[in-house]
Fold:
Amino acid sequence: MICFHAGQAGEQGYTLIEIILVIVIMSVMTMMIAPSFFSATGTTAGQEARRLTQALRLAADEAVLTGRPMRWTAREHSYSFESPDSESVWQLQDESPFHAYSLPGGIRILAVQPVETTAITETTDQKESEPVLAHLLLLPQGIVEPSSIVLADRGGEGDQVTILLQPGPAGISIEKEPIE
Structure:
């Protein structure tokens, strides 16, 4: 095969147009791939807030359907659900979706308002090194007292997302969610 190349014989290399074209193509491909790569590498406070919102809605529905309260227990890096046994002692739930859940690295529960005013007691299954931040009761008659839960990225330095718990049919919602 014979190739003709404009220029002197023995001259090899790329033209400026070819180099610029390759750089443009690589830039476009990087812009398309980078967002999916970075979103897959870590969980955000917004994603965890959506997960927690769904779990709280399920727990609230469970309380209504069974006629027995559910209690959400918050720790800085984890949360769990409990329900009372026949002797009214809070027992840790170990079935999905109510099993104890550890937040991914960098995500933490920054605040829970209001904190239950009664003494925060733990069941025998819950003795852990991380102290309890708060308990929220999900009653069979629905949410009685408005509350909020704040989740934060990077130890409170990054995005913060607030989950609102209010009386009524749309009682558990995300107040403000950052753009991801």
About this structure: The longest helix spans residues 16-41.
